[in-house]
Amino acid sequence: MKLYIKRICRFAAFCAIIFWILEFKVFGDVDNFAKFFIQNDKTSARERIIRNTNNAFRSVSVSNKTKEHLMSNNRNVNVVQLNREQLLDQNMKRDHIFQQNRHVPRLTDKEIEQIKHVIENSPVVIQKYKLIFFWNEKSGCTYWKSLFHFIQGLSSENVHSSQLLSYLIQFNDKEVTEMMFDNSWTKAVFVREPRERILSCYLDKGFDKSFMEYYFKRTPKSFLDFLKLTQQFKGSHWEPQVKLPRFLYRNMMIGKMSDIFTFTEQLLTKIGAWNETVNVWMNLEKIKKRTRHHATNAKDKLYQYYNDPKIQDIIFEIYADDYDVFNFEKVYFDFDKKTFRNVKNTILD
C-alpha cells in the first residue's frame, strides 16, 4: 500500500514538472500562458478583458456575477466577487479598456438603446472636441445647441431642426461602446431641478391645445391634471432626466441649470473650446436671460403652483431618480426666505 502511494506521488510530481516546462518553454512566461488559456476559454458567457501590468495579468468576465482573478509570478490567487456595476466601474479607466486587442466591456442592446436614446433627443457628438453631451428638453437645450453651433462655426436659423450637429444615434453600436468607455472622450449631462422643469413644461406646453391633443388627446384641466397625464403618456419634455444605466453617470460631468454659465466655462475649458470669443457670446446670452426674466413674474408663478406641499411631494415621487442621481435636495420651496431667489429666475426657460 505504501509503495502504491509513493508511485502516485511520484507520478503527480512528474506531471507538475511537465506542466511548468510547458508553461515556460512553449508559452514563454506566465502572462503569455495565462492569456492563451483565457482567450481559449469557451465557457465564459460574456467577453473578457485582459490587462498586463508588471508581470501580472488580470482577466475579467463581464456578467451579472463575476470573479476577478489576480495572478502574479508567485502564483497566489485571490478571488473577489463583483457585480456588473462594480466591474464596469473599475474598468472605466482607459488603461483597463483599450488594450492591444481592443477589448471593451460589452453593453446590452437595452443599454445601447438607452445611451443612444433612439426615440428622441439623442446625445450631441462633437468629434473635433471628443465630446458626448446628454441634453434634456426644458433644461436649456436651446442654449446648448446654439453654443455647439457657435463653437463649430455653424449657422442655423432654427437650432432644433438643424441637421448640422452630429448625434450619437448616427454611430453604430461598436463605436458607441468604444466612445463611452474611452476616457479621452468627455461625457457630460445637463439637468434641471425637476419642479422647475415640469412647471416650465406646463407653462410652455400645457396651454398649447394642438400639442396637448397630439400627446395627451385632451387639454389638461389643471397643473395637477397635467402631472397625472405625464404618467400616462410618454414625452421627452417631461420624462425623467435619468435615461442611462446609473453606473455611467459616475464618470460624467454633471451641469445644472442654476449654474449654467459656470458649467459652460468648465466644460469648454476641459475639451479645449474655451476662448475669448466664446466668452463674449456667453455674456450676450446672460444679457438675454436677464431681460427675459424681467419680463416675467417668476416668483408669483412658483407660488401659484407650489404653495401646496402635496404637489411638491408628487413631483418628489415621480422624479425620485433625478433627485437621487443628480443630488437635488428634496426641500420644500420657502417663499418667505431670500434663498428663494436662487430658483425663481430659472423657472420659465
TrEMBL record:
<keyword id="KW-0325">Glycoprotein</keyword>
<keyword id="KW-0812">Transmembrane</keyword>
<keyword id="KW-0808">Transferase</keyword>
<dbReference type="InterPro" id="IPR018011">
    <property type="entry name" value="Carb_sulfotrans_8-10"/>
</dbReference>
<keyword id="KW-0735">Signal-anchor</keyword>
<protein>
    <recommendedName>
        <fullName>Carbohydrate sulfotransferase</fullName>
        <ecNumber>2.8.2.-</ecNumber>
    </recommendedName>
</protein>
<dbReference type="InterPro" id="IPR005331">
    <property type="entry name" value="Sulfotransferase"/>
</dbReference>
<keyword id="KW-1133">Transmembrane helix</keyword>
<dbReference type="GO" id="GO:0000139">
    <property type="term" value="C:Golgi membrane"/>
</dbReference>
<dbReference type="Pfam" id="PF03567">
    <property type="entry name" value="Sulfotransfer_2"/>
</dbReference>
<comment type="similarity">
    <text>Belongs to the sulfotransferase 2 family.</text>
</comment>
<dbReference type="GO" id="GO:0008146">
    <property type="term" value="F:sulfotransferase activity"/>
</dbReference>
<dbReference type="GO" id="GO:0016051">
    <property type="term" value="P:carbohydrate biosynthetic process"/>
</dbReference>
<keyword id="KW-0119">Carbohydrate metabolism</keyword>
<keyword id="KW-0333">Golgi apparatus</keyword>
<keyword id="KW-0472">Membrane</keyword>
